[in-house]
Amino acid sequence: MTTPVWDPHQYLRHSGHRSRPIEDLIARVPELPNEDAPRIADLGCGPGGPSVALATRWPAGHITGYDNSPAMLHEARAYAGRTSAGGSLDFSHGDLATWRPAPGERFDLLFSNAALHWVLPAAGQGRVLPAEGKGRVTSAEGKGRVLPAEGEGRVSPVEEHTDASDAAAEGRAPGFEALFPAWIDALPPGGVLAFQVPGNFTSPSHTLLLELRNSSRWRDRLGSESRSLSVLDPVGYMAELAPLGCEVDAWESTYAHLLHGENPVLDWVEGTALRPVLTLLADDPAAQEEFVAEYGELLREAYPPLNGDVSQGTVFPFRRIFVVATKDGAAS
Ligand SMILES: C[S@@+](CC[C@H](N)C(=O)[O-])C[C@H]1O[C@@H](n2cnc3c(N)ncnc32)[C@H](O)[C@@H]1O
């Protein structure tokens, strides 16, 4: 998968809508082992929004945001410092594919919002693919085809006959769930892993992007993705985390984001899903513009204004998957 160059300012253009799932996820995190002043990692902190929200719930907490984007970290560092309740916020460069708590460091909460689906652990790390029957929603990148909507919640046709050796042979990496064993192992009893990832890889915003990337006009220029962005459904994450000794609360929500502006879904994805393409075409602004214009037209058709009236806004339905896993063994 292309490592995208992030633009925090573009990303923050929809910060109101993007903060909803952060609040909904934090609301479900139970009391932590060191509730008064917990140690918290915000994994893939971006421009710092989740870290600030975590500091609002745990004002005396010690929160470190980790990210591998210099631009995002630069933005986040505006929030670094002590809190009035004696807590602290700081930000650090880290690649989640290899991130672990330092020896002797104990986190009460590992938190991640809208970041883990970008992370592909190194090949050979942890488990490779979900056991049969667990749902995987995938963008099928590199397969040159798009999964039907009914592929959601089940093992997709793409994955059906796949095992670890197939994945290795195809050069695909395990999903980020391969990171769970080490992360859960590092938590104290009662410690929590809480994350949210998009579950919208079969939505037009993503399928149209993939089709355009794979069209004859762009395929050679952009190359095919050799690894797939994919997420499990809530039951899939339960099945991964329960055997690691966790009590798992998992659910999904579809937000009907009402966006305003001329082509607001394009404006949204320019901060996220389109980043890899913009990065690949960064040295050719004319090609960038051409791709964005083509994709923008497709999005305009797929997401018409509410009631055909642009003044009422445009609905962007966005499915998200939430998981709160509490490690067993908390003192009661
Ligand atoms: C969509 S943004 C979400 C930012 C933030 N969590 C939020 O909710 O506002 C995804 C973030 O994940 C970060 N990210 C992606 N892959 C990463 C990796 N391997 N290691 C660290 N951060 C990563 C990106 O740099 C980006 O800041």
Topology:
Blueprint: H1 8-11, H2 15-27, E1 39-43, H3 49-57, E2 62-67, H4 70-76, E3 81-82, E4 88-93, E5 109-113, E6 136-138, H5 164-169, H6 180-186, E7 192-198, H7 204-213, H8 219-222, E8 230-232, H9 234-241, E9 246-259, H10 264-269, H11 275-280, H12 285-302, E10 314-327
Parallel strand pairs: 1-2, 1-5, 2-4, 5-7
Antiparallel strand pairs: 3-4, 6-8, 7-10, 9-10
Helix pairs in contact: 2-3, 7-12
Bound molecules: S-adenosylmethionine (SAM).
S-adenosylmethionine is lined by residues 6, 18, 22, 44-46, 49-50, 67-69, 72, 94-97, 113-115, 118-119, 272.
Q: What report would you give on this structure?
A:
- The protein has helices at residues 8-11, 15-27, 49-57, 70-76, 164-169, 180-186, 204-213, 219-222, 234-241, 264-269, 275-280, 285-302, and strands at residues 39-43, 62-67, 81-82, 88-93, 109-113, 136-138, 192-198, 230-232, 246-259, 314-327.
- The protein is globular.
- It has a single domain (8-201, 225-254, 319-327), classed as Vaccinia Virus protein VP39 (Rossmann fold).
- With 332 residues, it is an alpha/beta fold.
- It has twelve helices and ten strands.
- It is 30% helix and 20% strand.
- The longest helix has 18 residues, at 285-302.
- Residues 126-135 and 137-173 have low confidence and may be disordered.
- α3 (49-57) links the parallel β1 (39-43) and β2.
- Strands 3-4-2-1-5-7-10-9 form an eight-stranded mixed sheet. The chain has a two-stranded antiparallel ribbon with strand order 6-8.
- 45% of the residues are buried.
- The structure holds S-adenosylmethionine.
- S-adenosylmethionine (SAM) binds at residues 6, 18, 22, 44-46, 49-50, 67-69, 72, 94-97, 113-115, 118-119, 272.
